[in-house]
Amino acid sequence: MFRKTFDNLLDKATSHLLIEPDWPTTIQLCDYIRQNDIQPKNALTAIRKKLSAPNPYSAYYALLVLESVVKNCGSIVHEEVTSKSYCEFLSDLVKTTEHANIRQKLLELIQVWNFAFRKNPKYTHIKDLMTQLTNEGYKFPVLQESDAMFAADTAPEWADGEVCHRCRVQFGIVQRKHHCRACGQIFCHGCSSKTSTVPKFGIEKEVRVCNMCYDALNKTSTS
Ligand SMILES: O=P(O)(O)O[C@@H]1[C@H](O)[C@H](OP(=O)(O)O)[C@@H](O)[C@H](O)[C@H]1O
Ligand SMILES: [Zn+2]
Ligand SMILES: [Zn+2]
């Protein structure tokens, strides 16, 4: 169900019939990825296909979708878009597109991402891509640092451990491990038996959270 809907939304957001970007649908696409209703890899592969669309309008709108997804979906997407294969694809697209506006937007995005990820050693391919294109004479636009401030943080990576983060009970065959989707820590069932939405991470459905995060997320105003 989810995959089909994502593709339908993507078709809508990149239709060559659009006279301006369809931001509401674009935000819905970001929400799908943030809520893990689609694997980031699959989402970016679908967007990649749209970037190669022969129709320049569809390809341009696909670039705007890619820009929004990278800005709003956090590290799960950053890893994909700065992977070796994706950077090679972006490099080919810069060199092969017949449309100057698409090349220009691509160079702008590559530069912003290079700046945004400059401190993170694992994103080397985007740095190499920028160096390679610069050496081949492509001119990058003036960098708008404001563009590189990425929005939303995303759910933290899940911690591992042999005892509950809260009550320290030892995990084992009976005492199973569970993770809080809000803080990412590991808990026994007794300390993480409640569910909640986590709007700050774009998780609109009820997911397992630990007792502390449940209280923080659902604190009723004590008025
Ligand atoms: O079912 P198990 O074999 O115990 O495996 C655990 C469950 O998948 C937990 O899911 P949950 O957090 O949704 O409970 C997950 O958080 C743990 O990391 C896994 O070890
Ligand atoms: Zn516990
Ligand atoms: Zn928590």
Write the layout of secondary structure elements.
Layout: H1 2-13, H2 23-34, H3 40-51, H4 56-72, H5 75-81, H6 84-96, H7 100-116, H8 124-135, E1 178-179, E2 186-187, E3 194-198, E4 203-209, H9 211-217
Antiparallel strand pairs: 1-2, 3-4
The structure holds the ligand O=P(O)(O)O[C@@H]1[C@H](O)[C@H](OP(=O)(O)O)[C@@H](O)[C@H](O)[C@H]1O and zinc ion (2 copies).
Structure notes:
The longest helix is centred in the N-terminal third of the chain and has 17 residues, at 56-72. Helix content is 49%, strand content 7%. It has helices spanning 2-13, 23-34, 40-51, 56-72, 75-81, 84-96, 100-116, 124-135, 211-217, and strands spanning 178-179, 186-187, 194-198, 203-209. The protein starts with a helix and ends in a 6-residue tail after the last helix. The protein is mostly helical and 223 residues long. Strands 1-2 form a two-stranded antiparallel sheet. Strands 3-4 form a two-stranded antiparallel ribbon. Helix 1 (2-13) runs parallel beside helix 3 (40-51), helix 6 (84-96) runs antiparallel to helix 7 and helix 7 crosses helix 8 (124-135).
List keywords for this structure.
4 strands; binds zinc ion; binds the ligand O=P(O)(O)O[C@@H]1[C@H](O)[C@H](OP(=O)(O)O)[C@@H](O)[C@H](O)[C@H]1O; two-stranded antiparallel sheet; 9 helices; mainly alpha; about 220 residues; about 5% strand
